[in-house]
Structures are given as structure tokens and as C-alpha cells.
Amino acid sequence: MKIIDRISSIYREKFGRSPAHIARAPGRVNLLGEHVDYNNGYVLPAAIDRATYVAFSPINARHSTLIAADFNQQASFSAETVPSKTQPDESLLPEWAHYPASVVWSLMEENLPILSMNAVFASNIPQGSGLSSSASIEMAFMIAWQTIGSWSLTPMQRALLGQKAENNYVGVNCGIMDQFASACGVENKLLLLDCRSLEWKTIPLPEDVSIVIADTTIHRKLTSGAYNDRRSDCDDAVRLLQQDLPNIKSLRDVSVEEFNQLAKKIPGKIERRARHVVEEIERSNQAEALLEAGDVKSFGKLMNECHMSLRDLYEVSIPELDTMVDLAQSLDGCYGARLTGAGFGGCTVNLVAKENVEDFAQTLSMGYEVETGLHPEIYISHASNGAELIKR
Ligand code: GLA
Question: What is the pTM (predicted TM-score) of this model?
Fold first, then answer.
């Protein structure tokens, strides 16, 4: 059954009528600029054609009641219970409910009125796969609360509030990339975002290449400390570099040459983390010109370098991701392959010549299964529009 039919039918069964609205918000894949958003660099994501869908109606009640169809669970909260992450009966909110509740929390911070709703939601983005399932839940519920509220925010404002919600309510110190891509996605286009100025533009993907996503099926939990640790390593690096470069505000302000000169003053682990960021920002600076010129080969090389750097310097890869990337890079038609998203598990992103794409997917799948004993999911992805109301 299609996901929209499934959530609508659960809604009818549970709440006795059809939902008034349905919203969707996509996941994202990132092609270049990994772990640089919180260092003010450039990122190059695209919203993907997998999404979270919410069926909802406004209700005249104190509490909102949400059903997570994928977990077959229900939770309730109101503006009064959200800050303590509890339900009206004082039990704790289940973890999945933190994401929609975080949206309410961030809207309250803006003094926006929150009406109650009944909602059923489900997603076809695998959780913990590096494709931003959490941001898509946040952005879908932003649309839902906006639809029943008497206010309206721009997609970028919704993205920024979603990031604030995740930083302060969920407790993951993420950057802006995921919520941005989910909120601002454009069909068939890559998005180039300057994470400092928040200016962004679309870049067409060359016609003869496809984005292929390969899921290792090893899924991680981003709330684990490893992500926040990386972020504080970057802050430490900035503090150390400021002794010689007092005007820098983030690693974005440090050139590769400056970094090479000062690197020996920085302790090993922090030096490796910062080197990844400084070099990755340099790589992502080149992305626009290369893609505009149709030089997919050079762009793919940057993706390959990015993976090596995430593996050896930023240390966020795992053996299964490395296996998937090594296999992909050896196949005909593959311009570039690397892990996408935060790492520690999840998916790789591959840029593949259209004419090779079927063979590529099949050979990669078989090779990965032989080497790991795991059955991967591999799919050709199409860039999609950002979060929207799809049924009034
Ligand atoms: C996660 C975060 C993003 C970004 C990526 C790594 O997806 O949510 O903000 O930092 O990791 O690039």
C-alpha cells in the first residue's frame, strides 16, 4: 500500500474520519561539503525522493495526539508538557516523539500560537541511514503546524527553527544542512548553500549522470556523542588557531596554506579533524565551477578525496562504508563515491554515468553481499522539491 494511503487509513481507523491535510518533507543526500556546515562552509545537498508524510487535522483539544505508523505507537503532548518531554499522564515522551515535540518547542520560543492536532505519520527514509530522516520529520511537522496555525514562515526560517529544535531540544548539535535541504529542495537540482551567509542557489546536475544511493544497512544513532565530539574538536581547533590568526571566527576563515603552516602547533586528533574541514571547504569551493563546466570527472575525484578524508582524518567511516565505496570506485561509469551525511553507518552517494547505472547497481549489490554477507539497498535517486502540503 502506498504510504499516503497507509497513513490515511490508520488515521481513519484511529480518529474516525479522514485527515484534513497531508504534508510531506523529503530526506537529503549530500554530494560534497561534509561536516563543514557547522564550520560555516559550503554544502551541496539535494532533497531526495524519499520523505516523511504526515496526515493531520486541527482539533479543539488541549493535547495533540500523534501516531508513528512505523513504530505502531502513539504519544500525546501539549504546550505545557513539551518542555519536560512528558505526556499528559506524566509518562515520558517516547524518543520518536521528541522530533515533532521539538518543533512545537521551537515555535513556542518564537511566541507563535500552537493549535492541537491529531496526526499519523510515516517515512520511507530508512532511519539512521545518513539521509536525514529526523530533519524530514521536523520539516513535515513544521508544515503541519503552519497549516493549522495563523502564521507563515519562509522555508529557510522553518529550517533554522528546525535546527534550533534539534540543537536545544533533541540534543544533537547539528548544522543547518539537513533542515535546509528538506525545506528548500528543488526538483532535479542540486542546492549550493553558503552556511555562513545562508545564501543559496540551485545547480543543475549534468544530464548524463545519476545519483545512486547505496545503503550499507548498518544504521547509527546520531544522538550518540561522536557527532557532538567532532563539533567540539572543531571549536577547539579554532581557539588554538586564533592564537596566530586572531581574526578567524571559524575554520571557514583558514586557508589550506595557513593551516599547513600552523598545523604542527595543534595536537594530533584536533589537527586531523581541522585538516579535514579546511580541505573539504576548499574542495566544496571548487564544486560550482566544475559542475557548471560539466567536468563531472574532476568533481567525482573530489568526492573520492572527501571519502578518504572522512575515513582517515575525520574518522567517521566504518568498514562497511569503506567496502561499499571501494567497490563502487572500481566499477565502470562511477565518477565518484563516498559516504554521505554524518557517517558512523548509513549510506554512500555515487555519481554514475547514466548508461552504466543498471550494471553499476547490480554489481555493487552483489559485490557488497559477497564481502559482508549483508544485503544492501541500492537505488537511483531523483532530486525532489522541499517540504510542502500535498493535500488540503
Ligand atoms: C548531519 C548533520 C548535518 C551535517 C552532517 C555532516 O547530517 O545533521 O548538519 O553536519 O551530519 O555533514
Answer: 0.97
